[in-house]
Fold this sequence. Notes:
- Zn(2+) binds at residues 348, 569, 573, 599.
- It is found in: Secreted.
- This protein has 844 residues and is of the alpha+beta class.
- It folds into four domains: 6-39 and 149-343, no CATH class; 45-136, Nuclear Transport Factor 2, Chain: A; 362-587, Elastase, domain 1; 589-844, Neutral Protease, domain 2, CATH 1.10.390.
- The protein is built from 19 helices and 25 strands.
- The termini are far apart.
Amino acid sequence: MRGLLTVSLVAAGLAGSAFAHIHDSDAPIRRRKSLGFGPIHPHAVFRSSPYQIQTNGFLPFSAASNPVEVARQFVEDRMAGRLTRDNTFIIRKDSYTDKNTGVTHVYIRQVVNGIEVADGDMNINVKDGVVLSYGDSFYNGTAPISHVDDNDDEHPHATFCSQLESEVLDRRDSLSEFFASQSGEQTILGSSADIKETIMGPIEHLYLSNCAHVNKPYQLAKEDPSVAGSIGDSKKALLQFMIAATPNDRVLQDILARYDHHLSNMVSSFETHLVGDHSVMVEHIDKVPDTVNPVKAKLVYVQVPKGDKTILNLVWKFEVEMQDNWYEASVSAIAPHRIISVVDWASDSPLPKQPETKVPATYNVFAWGINDPAEGNRTLQKEYYDALASPVGWHSLPYANDPQSHGLRRNKTDFWRNTSTTFGNNVFAHEDWEGQNSWLDNYRPNAGKDMIFDYKYKPKVTDDSDALDEAKKYINATVTQLFYTSNMVHDLYYRYGFDEVSGNFQQYNFGRGGEENDAVIANAQDGSGYNNANFMTPPDGQNGRCRMYLWSTANPYRDGDLEAGIVIHELSHGLSTRLTGGPANSGCLGWGESGGMGEGWGDFLATMIRSTRNYSDYPMGAWAANKETGIRNFIYSLNETINPSTYKTLDKPGYWGVHAIGEVWAEILWIVSQHLINKHGYIDTLFPPASLENGTVPEGDFYRPAEYTSTGQRKPLIPKHGNSLIVQLVLNGMKLQQCRPSFFDARDAIIQADQILTGGENFCDLWKGFSERGLGPDARVEGRTPWGGGIRTNDYTVPLACKEQKIPETPKEPGKPEEPEDVVFYVEPGVTKTSCKNRRTKAA
């Protein structure tokens, strides 16, 4: 194995950009360290074809069957011959039924020897007694009879770093060869920094973040050989992880110098949690260096490849909340304590009685749909009262769920607290100039009894030394905008199915299920960095945290809180993380294609929200970055000369980071969306009609005319326009797909979402969109790595049923636009063509 590069890479000084969720490579920013890797599970599958599901003889149950029992029987069928007292499963309590589609999403966790298999997951999607699809990453081997660790070099961390090191060295060789062939710092392709970014991409930063301490477990084990081969103290495993995780060199050196002191200083307490009907002892470890809250720890198994099979390793699973990261980490329980996997979380019942009459708030903001200050002016907007999504508005929450009300004097009969600040049931928005994790008492604008949040915003050009102070003058306008945009996102996503049972972010859930006390903590002008933004998504019942930064890319500074696309992108991390694999499992979008899609969904949804009836290409983050082309490699476009991204693009240097992977996924979804828009037309608002007094939702011009079952029940409402339909399918697809999905899994889940919602009428349109950028049915990847590497093959064909030029006609709804005659689909293998004109069809 080549020698580790840590010292030489640090000495060389790494060019490039921050690798939090939004970045700009030309701006001076603080790089955020982030660990993220884990084993590849080649045995994991996602199946959505009825032929695949029924092949083994599993036939549908009656429509009246309990969907959870159907799922239970299905799991037992899948585990036939392997289901024993030592190899069983539990049904997780975050399973739920989607109110609109009627699909029950059942989440299963494998249990071996009475211990959870943390990555042994099944998600089973059931409706009317039928298993529609399922994902399965269960361990298929026999239960281990001991917990002895063989300490070989095939563990994921060492393997990951060895592969990553080879990639770094290969890229550095290519970089050296390129510069040796050039004269001077400026080349025809750009500056030396530009060339380095093109060739190296994020690979060096990935290596430094993840591999600087890969050998440290062995060194520490040698210093304390008495623990080798036995289940070690959780604190030793945790301290080993902190050595790798801390970005602070002072803290690192202190841990190494005073290792025994930190071990003895940490304090534990214990409590019992129930996972399904399975009892688990959880340890809370306090006084852990460089953490901001006690660490949660429990013993679990994880699956690790070994040769051509998979084995189970016993690990300590930690939840570690730090200043800039919130990790879910698996560390070997037996010394040497090696990191096996790590995910950074930092990538609806009757309506309640209304609180007493109060004045709806008014906000002077860039209205919903205006992406940034370059697109329009601020106007006065009323508090958006959606009786379904925010039944008591944006500024009310129960005293019992209000973290500011502990110890507050009030009448015992009072239930609701009405606030006059940017503090409500969905969002807590405030300044965070200190860049710290304390937030409860941070400054918020107070609109008084009139509830008018109308504040000046007119920053001036200043000396560079005064630019920060100039930006701070307008904190009231900034926090108001962040509060407004974040609540609008909450209400929009709620109406498309991101509700309480599926894991949304609310302090109070109105008795509708799900876990409470997890409103979004939204930091404006966060002082921990510049030119960036990020979102931390713990499991349901813990607050999400959104951090927005100033951008030093112009004078006066530009405020990321005012660019809606960036805020929407970040909040969409909470959406995709909670919907994929279930609301109690935040470890499903950690790295590789899965982590990349977490980024891509954010870009896609932000772009769909800002789009208009008149087609346009769109960049991401252009205003904040003061860069016309934005902060991605390409702007989102139908034109392949403007955005050439295909599935195969992921093989290129620079596409190993989740942001670049996400660009490709977002571009593919953008292409797919235009197929549906050209077929179904466009609607000017993505917000569905307000509900009636009885709680039902009228069709209006948003949904197709309602259909009813033979028993008089209304079937799921179907958005009638292309742009609203694709948003619905994308969210429904997140609920269907498995934990740690690939591009193929997410594609198939969206196609199945259409089958469930519309009966599959858009089957060919969706396939044509995916195949146009290489994600046809025969696309494949070989040698996939944790960071997204591998060799991919594009497929531009479509399923046989779609290869006919003319799709069989279906009855046309009154007022529905005809498909334009100039839309031509090219399905020959290897041919890539733009499939639709750069324009909208007239909406119905």
